[in-house]
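re: that chain from earlier
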Amino acid sequence: MLARQNRLTRGAEYKAVVRRGARCAGANSITYVTHSSDDRAARFGFIVSKQVGSAVVRNTVRRRLKAVCAEALTDVRPGADVVIRALPGSATADFFQLRDEVTRCLARRAA
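^ sequence. v structure.
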């Protein structure tokens, strides 16, 4: 689980990362990353729309993405803000597919 200091909480923060962030797309998700010079922990946010599926499916996808980001937290540069947008294909993807895709994007953009 991600601690409060590692989460984006405001809509304006999400919007800033999506608009200005470097983008990495995969089959099941799109990852946006911005960097700041602030000396703080990396922060993560997740966008899982109704196109992904029912509430149960969306929450499952969100929990999987959170677990992947908690694993990758040590590899992400301090001061980075990351937003992961789940695409409809993420509903049928298993945990390992999501993990491989997200860690690849984080290695390219947030390391």
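The longest helix spans residues 55-72.
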